[in-house]
Sequence to fold (287 residues):
Amino acid sequence: MDYYQTLGVNKTATEQEIKTAYRRSALKWHPDRNKTSEAAGKFKDVTKAYEILSDPKKREMYDQYGESAFNRGGPGGFGGGGGGQSGNPFEGFGGFSSQGFENVDFGGFSDPFEIFEQFFGFQSPFSRGGRRQQRRDVYEITLTFEEAVDGVKKTMIVKGEEKSFQIPAGVDNNMAIRFSDFDLQVKVKPHPYFTRKGQDIYFEKDISYSLAVLGGVVEVPTVNGTIKLKIRPGTQSGTTVKLHDQGVPYPQSNRKGDQYVIYKINTPARVSGRAKELLKELEGEME
Fold:
């Protein structure tokens, strides 16, 4: 397996480029988000690739010896010298190894595995929290749709004290955020007309029959403001338009999701006599 190819980066990639590529691939292939049969294997591969390439020493060994450097008995392999990981309780769990993650910089997360909690809403089985028995206080906070999208500063009583903290932009419903001394469970109120799926936004736009036939321009709301869209003549009901980078930000990232606008042709329940005559004439012309 080529670890660089697995993450979609070249051999000269910077640490930040590798980190960004891993986050993107982890979001794409995590089995809780991707239900395809290949997801688990792909997720395992990208995690292993990141484990190696994010560590300068391991990356240097990989560049020199290839994947064999990390096989038992290989040059500098983890398993050499009498099975150095024989006491590791996570050995063989889903094919992952916990070795090497403790000192990885995940860009601002106090625990390397909090990336799972921020993006996927659950705790990684390899996190330090998963290995200790210490119980953490969990608090619940309810956000408006807009607060979850844009991020917001909140104040609440934690362990009898008033604390202020920043909710990052892009959090989603049921996502868990870990702070230094407590966990925060996020609940997000639904929006009256936006539907959110991950970091993507879906919006149904009603258009008239004449507009669908003749084409024109309509205004469409997004989470970033109102924009104008051109409707092509002959647009069918159900036609979907993708608006790049008009969705929800990914937490702790510069990336954004997309917005999908779905056109629905609005058929009036009642029409005047004159309108019926015009529609009959139109039907004749179209035939």
Notes: The two ends are 60 Å apart (CA to CA). The longest helix spans residues 15-29. The chain has a mean pLDDT of 79.
